[in-house]
Amino acid sequence: MARGLNRVFLIGALATRPDMRYTPAGLAILDLTLAGQDLLLSDNGGEREVSWYHRVRLLGRQAEMWGDLLDQGQLVFVEGRLEYRQWEKEGERRSELQIRADFLDPLDDRGKERAEDSRGQPRLRAALNQVFLMGNLTRDPELRYTPQGTAVARLGLAVNERRQGAEERTHFVEVQAWRDLAEWAAELRKGDGLFVIGRLVNDSWTSSSGERRFQTRVEALRLERPTRGPAQAGGSRSREAQTGGVDIDEGLEDFPPEEDLPF
């Protein structure tokens, strides 16, 4: 099994004022919505900006410290991890991938450009949106082609995490790769180890019952296949992706995940 790695780095503008609350046990929870724009390569070799909004959760003393100091528009750096959660609603099993902050720091905004969406919410241009994961595939990759002939692969990644004083947990992350990287990834098989460098994106769709659903996943920018010893070193392959053409703890049980993202 591949060594678990699970790190997220974000720099963005606070789209709204942070929301502070407490569990019945007194644990502080600070929910923030960061907004930014990634600069990606397009099919014709040019560049284009892609907007993103990500909800981040900060707990405990840091949450209390920053709760009254942060406001809409503030530039913030977040270092954290992805956390997979499951719950039941009306007999149906639900899940979400949440960004849990380990560290947060406000940033100087001098010289930084902002954009504004249709609701007047600020976004940081040339933001930072990067994820590093290492785990094992939970299934064989699913390769398909768009009507324009572009390859796209969906992968399920299980990332094991052992934090000090806690039991080992497994986080399940959906990963998507495009073009040559997708075709390379399609050769992998369930159980293979995989190192992923990518960016976080949110998908949304309407379920058969008319409910609006959301999913956070990782869009791969680079994939590496870990080896398990010198004898296999020659078989390691990697490929960088072209990113254009993308169409698209304790006390927390009292707060099941919200159904709608807060933006």
TrEMBL record:
<keyword id="KW-0233">DNA recombination</keyword>
<dbReference type="GO" id="GO:0003697">
    <property type="term" value="F:single-stranded DNA binding"/>
</dbReference>
<keyword id="KW-0238">DNA-binding</keyword>
<dbReference type="InterPro" id="IPR000424">
    <property type="entry name" value="Primosome_PriB/ssb"/>
</dbReference>
<feature type="compositionally biased region" description="Acidic residues">
    <location>
        <begin position="247"/>
        <end position="263"/>
    </location>
</feature>
<keyword id="KW-0234">DNA repair</keyword>
<keyword id="KW-0227">DNA damage</keyword>
<dbReference type="Pfam" id="PF00436">
    <property type="entry name" value="SSB"/>
</dbReference>
<dbReference type="InterPro" id="IPR012340">
    <property type="entry name" value="NA-bd_OB-fold"/>
</dbReference>
<dbReference type="GO" id="GO:0009295">
    <property type="term" value="C:nucleoid"/>
</dbReference>
<keyword id="KW-0235">DNA replication</keyword>
<protein>
    <recommendedName>
        <fullName>Single-stranded DNA-binding protein</fullName>
    </recommendedName>
</protein>
<comment type="function">
    <text>Plays an important role in DNA replication, recombination and repair. Binds to ssDNA and to an array of partner proteins to recruit them to their sites of action during DNA metabolism.</text>
</comment>
<feature type="region of interest" description="Disordered">
    <location>
        <begin position="223"/>
        <end position="263"/>
    </location>
</feature>
<feature type="short sequence motif" description="Important for interaction with partner proteins">
    <location>
        <begin position="258"/>
        <end position="263"/>
    </location>
</feature>
<dbReference type="GO" id="GO:0006310">
    <property type="term" value="P:DNA recombination"/>
</dbReference>
<dbReference type="InterPro" id="IPR011344">
    <property type="entry name" value="ssDNA-bd"/>
</dbReference>
<dbReference type="GO" id="GO:0006260">
    <property type="term" value="P:DNA replication"/>
</dbReference>
<dbReference type="GO" id="GO:0006281">
    <property type="term" value="P:DNA repair"/>
</dbReference>
